[in-house]
Design a protein that fits this description.
The structure is a single chain. By secondary structure, the protein is of the alpha/beta class. The protein contains 11 helices and 12 strands. The strands form 2 sheets. Strands 5-4-6-7-1-8-12-11-9-10 form a 10-stranded mixed beta sheet, sandwiched between helices. Helix 4 links the parallel strand 4 and strand 5. The protein is globular and about 60 Å long.
């Protein structure tokens, strides 16, 4: 578990862009895709908030939307291996939404089966695993991959997540729980859709393939929160504190600190308050624990795609020279109580040396 994983490439598909560079640049420019759904309305008769993919027909069924988004991001993340004309079978670990109205375990099984096939892809997916844990699914899988690769189970893998809230039953469920941003909700979010994936390798595999890494996953951890959202329990951030502390515990502050934070805070008060307790407990590990990036402001809540897209944003910032430092913390919070954190390190490339 001490050996870092190497991030070789990222792939993304968001309402702000069809690939990583466009998505990150649009978000950095404070462009927002948050608007209204063309025909879904809430309980008051007002259009529901939405952040939709610009190329997908709004009438396309939810799981077909997720399949198209995932394949697009997976294809981009595999480009370094495809460039040499190689046909390498790579394990795929995909994060999916928690079971909910509009997305069942049967839908998850269908989606995993489709992603295990080559249709629409120019590479051959290997063994395909799915984690149905929503926001924290992708970072949970990265933590799992660190253990698996340390044990020699495989030396490279494709990890990420995909999300789309745009099923009528899902949106109605969010509306009933007052989770949609709007005049009748004290706190809520804009539902989004997208996918984020990354290609991870061990150092041995990267050397064998002749590839240079973009970043390193140097720490990861998961934990469980018993005081969950949609209950009367008071969440003191215990689970998230545990996950973050375990992921960053190898750092020696103040010499070594986290320079940037990427999270899934989305407008729900529960999430913001949870992070507040982490700030109080673990402030010594951060340059500024309140200076976080919450991309939901630009492209809506990304659910199970959150972790993969956070990693993409951190890598893009380092590669394009606008990162605030070399260390980034990624963290996510699932409704089922799963909390996940990943410590990412990447050298910031000065603008004078960028191609």
């Amino acid at each position: 578990m001490n050996a870092p994983l190497l991030v070789m490439a990222t792939g993304a598909r968001t309402p702000l862009g069809l690939h990583s560079a466009a998505s990150a640049a649009s978000l950095r420019a404070a462009i927002s895709s948050c608007s209204e759904h063309p025909y879904f309305v809430d309980g008051t008769g007002e259009p529901m908030p939405a952040s939709l993919d610009g190329l997908l027909d709004p009438r396309l069924p939810c799981r077909e939307r997720m399949l198209a988004l995932a394949r697009s991001a997976m294809q981009e993340a595999m480009l370094p291996l495809l460039a040499g004309g190689r046909q390498i079978r790579v394990p795929v670990l995909v994060g999916l939404p928690e079971p909910r109205p509009g997305f069942s375990e049967a839908d998850a099984h269908w989606l995993r089966s489709q992603l295990a096939q080559q249709g629409g892809l120019t590479f051959v997916p290997g063994e395909t695993q799915a984690c149905l844990s929503g926001h924290s699914a992708a970072l949970f899988l990265m933590d799992q991959a660190r253990r698996d690769m340390a044990q020699g189970k495989y030396d490279m893998c494709l990890i990420g997540g995909v999300e789309s809230y745009f099923h009528p039953d899902t949106l109605e469920w969010l509306d009933r729980n007052r989770q949609l941003v709007g005049p009748v909700s004290r706190s809520g979010f804009v539902p989004g859709e997208g996918a984020g994936f990354c290609l991870l390798m061990t150092a041995v595999a990267a050397h064998r393939c002749g590839l240079q890494p973009l970043a390193l996953v140097t720490g990861s951890a998961t934990a469980w929160e018993s005081h969950r959202i949609k209950t009367d329990d008071v969440n003191m951030g215990t689970g998230l504190i545990e996950a973050v502390h375990a992921a960053v515990g190898s750092l020696q502050p103040p010499q070594e600190r986290i320079n940037a934070i990427y999270c899934d805070i989305n407008g729900e008060r529960y999430r913001g308050e949870e992070w507040g307790f982490v700030c109080l407990k673990l402030a010594r590990y951060f340059d500024d624990p309140t200076a976080y990036c919450s991309p939901a402001d630009g492209w809506g809540d990304m659910g199970a795609a959150s972790g993969g897209l956070q990693l993409m944003l951190a890598v893009q910032a380092a590669q394009r020279g606008y990162a605030s430092g070399r260390r980034s913390l990624l963290w996510t919070s699932s409704e089922n109580g799963l909390r996940a954190a990943v410590l990412l390190e990447a050298d910031v490339i000065p603008s004078a040396f960028r191609g």
